[in-house]
Write a structure and sequence with these properties.
624 residues; 9-stranded antiparallel sheet; 21 strands
Length: 624
């Protein structure tokens, strides 16, 4: 047993697992401390990964050498590509997972990772030397020393669960809360605040009338999250089901509002705006007489189901009565009730872009303790904290992704620049350059960076480069080929787009939104003989080529804007700048700049309360 490590990660959730894996893969001697080794990367809420913007994050994690995508592929029981009604640049992958299998696969992967050791116990204190962290102490008094520490405690810091008027200390149903660290950090000067989230009841599938609901099947064609895998053929794909609340449901819920910890002031933390509890919905949207619910399977070998859209902290009897008024749930039986949970988090403006704290050297925060919500957002932060902690220990340049490079860059920049006043959730609308940040090109954007970091091997790079060559082959072939009216008009008429009257370049036909490249290539002499078509990865390659052709103008315009903005990111602001001397900057601007301490002009301009004129004064001060 060794008590000295390069990196210590506290917390075995999605952030902690990605952080520990990244640090170990980069060659750092890493210790992951968790309170329960059987619940690594536990899906505490709904058993799914991905979704709008979140799916892009998982693909970015994979492109950077993280493993959330790989574990998702190994445990998925349904796959859907969302936003199919929109153009392919807006598509987002989502997978329903087997909850138990997801955790088992994570543990298997971590136990097979070199340089990584796991210790089961609660970490209660940081060991400090001046303003530098040098290790942690556990509840049994075990002391581990390290060069850097990453805290990824999720909802466990002073976690408090609510069901009606009942309050139970815990970080998750069945798990105790974590104490000691919040109090120590607050004593050290950190701003500690409270947030709230919640989950819904788990129900017995044998008591559900699925015939009264709308079945939602997964996509028929195989897909993967990881760029390493071929398409996953899900042998037994389980369906989700859609039903709705109604006025009877709402009336039962209203009867219980007097017992709601949310509306009686017992819960102090701010809840998620975009994933509210069902009681919050009926109060906020009182004119709506129905809310959509998704009945999601928990796994292949269980009859347990999750009710997406019915998170609640109302008393058990109120939850049960309301659920039995839902179509298809008239005889429902509950395995465990929904509950709300309050927990401590740290305002993320106290962090650098590396996720290292500004106050304590070599201490990193990642995941929900930074005010985020969602497995994907947590995993992304853990990955970046793991990478940057190793680089810091090795005295190397930090790894920071720009907003034009990734959703992960948008996520972290939003957190450390703007802070949070409610649980942060990623949306495509938060990204200025979302046509550049697609799910199909995360490997092209990030894999070479992963290789330079030591997170990806040469095989992954070669796989990505093969894809780039095959995509180029399709585009080049269509650019030099022509089609006659007799070749393509039948296809054009079938997809309801204008037929042609004379010979045209195939690329012009491919640029039409209704036309699929696979169908077009069959019409062109030699089109089915090119290497891209023969590749087992043809669907992935054709999709990427199609996006590049159809969105070329938008992509180029967005790149020009991104390049202009990126120049501002290169204008560094000295760490020792005294904003009090810059009296021409507005009072609010000076206050925000002093508190957040932006590292460059681009970040300064994104701070709420810092005006364009304030930025101009900064530019003049820097001699630009």
């Amino acid at each position: 047993m060794d008590f000295k490590y390069d990196i210590i990660v506290v917390g075995g959730g999605h952030a902690g697992c990605e952080a520990a894996h990244a640090a170990a893969v980069m060659g750092a001697d890493t210790l992951l401390i968790t309170m329960d080794m059987t619940k690594l990367a536990q899906m505490s809420c709904n058993p799914a990964m991905g979704g709008i913007a979140k799916g892009q994050i998982v693909r970015e994690i994979d492109a950077l050498g993280g493993v959330s995508g790989i574990v998702t592929d190994r445990s998925m029981i349904q796959f859907r590509m969302l936003n199919r009604s929109k153009g392919p640049a807006m598509w987002s992958p989502r997978a329903q997972c087997d909850r138990q299998r997801f955790t088992i696969e994570w543990r298997k992967l971590l136990e097979q990772t070199e340089n990584l050791h796991i210790w089961q116990e609660q970490a209660t204190l940081l060991v400090l030397e001046g303003d530098k962290v040098v290790g942690v102490e556990t509840s049994f008094g075990t002391r581990f020393r390290s060069d850097a520490v990453i805290l990824t405690n999720g909802t466990f810091l002073n976690g408090l669960m609510h069901i009606g008027f009942q309050k139970i200390k815990g970080g998750r149903s069945g798990d105790q809360s974590s104490t000691g660290l919040s109090e120590q950090l607050e004593h050290l000067g950190f701003s500690v605040e409270r947030m709230k989230t919640g989950t819904s009841a788990r129900i017995d599938g044998r008591s559900i009338n699925f015939s009264a609901m709308t079945e939602q099947k997964g996509d028929e064609e195989g897909r993967t999250f990881s760029y390493l895998g071929e398409n996953v053929d899900i042998k037994v794909q389980k369906s989700c089901y859609i039903t709705h609340t109604n006025e009877e449901v709402h009336e039962e819920l209203r009867k219980g509002l007097e017992f709601s910890p949310l509306f009686t002031g017992r819960i102090k933390g701010r809840g998620p705006r975009y994933c509210p509890s069902i009681e919050d919905k009926i109060v906020t949207f009182k004119d709506r007489n129905a809310h959509q619910l998704f009945i999601e399977p928990e796994g292949l070998d269980t009859v347990e189901y999750y009710i997406n859209g019915f998170a609640s902290s109302l008393p058990l009897e109120v939850q049960l009565k309301a659920l039995r008024k839902v179509k298809g749930l008239e005889k429902v039986k509950i395995y465990r009730p929904g509950y709300a949970i309050e927990y401590d988090y740290f305002q993320p403006t106290q962090l650098k872009h590396t996720l290292e704290t500004k106050r304590i050297c070599n201490l990193y925060f990642a995941g929900q303790i930074n005010g985020t919500t969602g497995y994907e957002e947590a995993a992304a932060q853990g990955l970046m904290a793991g990478i940057n902690s190793v680089l810091k220990v090795r005295k190397m340049e930090p790894f920071i992704l720009g907003r034009e490079e990734s959703y992960i860059g948008v996520l972290i920049d939003d957190l450390v620049t703007k802070g949070v006043d409610e649980p942060y959730r990623m949306f495509t609308s938060r990204a200025e350059y979302r046509i550049l940040l697609r799910q199909d090109n995360a490997d092209e954007r990030l894999t070479r960076k992963a290789y330079e970091l030591g997170m990806a091997d040469i095989g992954r790079v070669q796989r990505m480069e093969e894809k780039e060559l095959l995509v180029k082959e399709i585009i080049d072939f269509l650019s030099r080929s022509s089609v006659e009216p007799d070749d393509v008009n039948m296809i054009l008429a079938k997809v309801d787009t204008n037929i042609i009257s004379q010979k045209v370049k195939a690329i012009t036909i491919a640029s039409r939104p209704q036309v699929e490249i696979g169908d077009l290539l069959k019409c062109i002499k030699g089109g089915t003989e090119i290497d891209a078509v023969k590749s087992s990865r043809f669907n992935e390659i054709a999709e990427s080529a199609e996006i590049k052709i159809k969105y070329e103008g938008y992509i180029q315009r967005e790149k020009i804007v991104a390049d202009k903005v990126k120049r501002l990111e290169g204008l560094r602001i000295p760490d020792d700048i005294d904003y009090n001397e810059l009296v021409s900057i507005s009072t609010e601007g000076r206050q925000k700049l002093k508190r957040i301490k932006p590292s460059n002009i681009g970040q300064a301009g994104r701070i709420s309360g810092v005006s364009p004129s304030d930025v101009n004064i900064l530019l003049m001060y820097l001699g630009r």
